[in-house]
Amino acid sequence: MYDIGTIPQSQILLDIHPKTGKLAPWQKHKKSTVALAESFRRIEKTDAGFKGRASKLENCGNWLEFRRYLDSGEKTLNRANFCRYRLCPMCGWRRSQKMFGQTSQVMDIAEKEGYRFVFVTLTIRNCEGSALGKDISRLFRAWSNLLRQKKYKSAVCGWMRILEITHNVDRKSESFNTYHPHIHAIWAVKPSYFKGGNYIPQAALIQDWKKAAHLSYDPNVDIRAVRKNRTHGAIKEVSKYATKSDDYLTDDDELTDSGVKILDRALVGRRLVSWGGSLKEIKAQLNLDDVETGDLIHVDGEQIRDDLAYVIESYSWHAGYKQFIKKEC
């Protein structure tokens, strides 16, 4: 048993965001990543196809190197070892920050170019785990079908689309242990969209999405204008990564392992984040890398400053204390 009180507070990682003042949750996400590794240790005993994942997750984020700037005390991540596995809570958190930063940059420029934005959510009904892969494919086909329609070609000048999957782990719910794949998107439209014939009301979107997805029921959809200078909420919503660890890491090992296996298989080979039209062009102009395969060190607008004096601080994960502890030089 380790007593965290025996470690000087100055030795425990404290990373406060310079803009928001919030404490970066490194410890929380590392603990979740360790829990996911434990799940894969159990899974690989009966399924050799999952061998190797646990080791990568156990090592993910084991060491973090920061630049601490002497004038302000702010920290910027300089180096780290990330596993890049899609379900990894640590890497998923970094990708969400990266998506928020990239989407903010793209929308800032698009807004200056005169575009307005519409936030869209497109859903289908919950499904069993065995049908999740098929229903994700249905969603992506339906998205393509929708945007090929003449009215959407005319109305939508650019878009950013992300897949999100929630897993119902509430045993009291009628839909317990079912999965809900859905799409969040931001559409860039011309200001005239809200005044002319290109405007798409929710009732029309319901029927168009129903047809595009070949559904026998009226689906739940949401479409709403993003108010000028109030894009933060829409960006935050669309910047969620595909899965949240709370949806598959539970206090029930059997439920956890089942969910992990289902999500792992359903997401293989999927492009979870996509851009199109004018927003894709702006992203290319900014030379932003791919959020799924790109850099996870420098995210959310973080920049390495070579013009400021700094010292290097390194931290390593202590499995007993369950904390990041500063390494002595």
Write the layout of secondary structure elements.
Elements: H1 26-43, H2 53-59, E1 63-69, E2 75-80, H3 89-112, E3 116-123, H4 132-148, H5 150-155, E4 158-167, E5 179-189, H6 202-212, E6 221-226, H7 232-238, H8 253-267, E7 273-276, H9 277-285, E8 310-318, E9 323-326
Antiparallel strand pairs: 1-2, 1-8, 3-5, 3-6, 4-5, 4-7, 8-9
Helix pairs in contact: 1-2, 1-8, 3-7, 3-9, 4-6, 4-8
Give the terminus-to-terminus CA distance. 27 Å
| Secondary structural class | alpha+beta
State mean pLDDT (0 to 100 scale). 91
Report the uncertain regions.
none
The helix/strand series, from N terminus to C terminus, equals HHEEHEHHEEHEHHEHEE
Largest sheet: 5 strands, antiparallel
Radius of gyration in whole Å, from Cα?
A: 22 Å
- Which term fits the overall shape? globular
Helix tally equals 9
Largest sheet, spatial ordering of strands: 6-3-5-4-7
Number of strands: 9
What does this molecule look like?
With about 325 residues, this protein is of the alpha+beta class. The chain contains 9 helices and 9 strands. The protein has helices spanning about 25-45, 55-60, 90-110, 130-150, 150-155, 200-210, 230-240, 255-265, 275-285; strands at about 65-70, 75-80, 115-125, 160-165, 180-190, 220-225, 275, 310-320, 325. Strands 6-3-5-4-7 form a 5-stranded antiparallel sheet, with helices on both faces. A 4-stranded antiparallel sheet has the order 2-1-8-9. A hairpin with a 5-residue loop joins β1 and β2. α1 runs antiparallel to α2 and α3 (about 90-110) packs across α7 (about 230-240). The protein is globular, with a radius of gyration of 22 Å. It starts with about 25 loop residues before the first helix and ends with a strand. About 35% of the residues are buried. The mean pLDDT is about 90.
